[in-house]
Amino acid sequence: MKEKFDKYYGSVDRSNMMVLITAVLDPRFKIKYVEWGYKKIYGNDLQKVGLMSRKLRDLLQGLYDFYVGVVSGFQESQTSCSSQITEIGQSSVIGVSCDEIAYDPSLDEYEEEMEVEIHDMTKSELDIYLKEKRLPLKSNLNILDWWKANAATYKVLSYMARDVFAIPVSTVASESAFSTSGRALDHFRSSLSTPIVEALVCAQDWLRYAYTPTTFEDYLMDAESYNSEINAHEASNSEHGA
Description:
mainly alpha
C-alpha cells in the first residue's frame, strides 16, 4: 500500500497538478496557499519553490485561456439565437435624449471611479480573482454554491470550476488499488460448468436470431415434405420386412 501511495502522492513533482488547481479555485486558499505549501515542503530551496510556482501558474493560465475560447463560443451561439429579441428590446429606448436629463455636478466623482473600474476590467477574470481578498479559512463554505452564486462575476472561471470539481478523486477501486494479494480470481469466478456454457451460447444464439413471420403456405409445404418422408420411410421398412 505504501508503494501505491508513493507512486501517486509520494512526491510533489509527480503529483497531479489538477489537485492543486482545485485548491486555487477554493476562494479560501487560492494560489498563495499552494505557494505557502511549496515553501513548507522545499524549505530553503527557493529555486525549486519558484520553479513549481511558475509551473502551476502556467498550467492555470493555459487552462483559463482554453476556457475563454469555450465560453466565448458558447456565448456567440446564444447571442445569435437571441438577436431578434435584443433588437426588439432596444427599440423602446431609441426616443430617449440625453439632453432631457438634468446633470448633477456632484456625479463627477462617480464618473472618475467608473473610469478606474473600467480600466481594471482590462484584467482577466483570473487576475481579478487571484488578487481579491480570500475568504476566512474557518468559514463554512460550499464551493459549488459559491461558484454558482458568483457565476455572473466570473463567467469563465465558473465554467472551469464546474468541470474541475466534477473530476472524480480516483477511477480505481480502493480494494484493487491497495490489495496486497494481487488480481486473483477464485475458482467460482474463473470457471463455468458445461451446462452453464451451453445455456449461455444458446441464449446468445436466440437473442441474435431475427424473427421472421412464417406464412400458411410455408407450414403446408413443410407438412407435405414431412408426410412424403414418412411415407418413403414406411415403404422402405415394408420392403425390408418382405
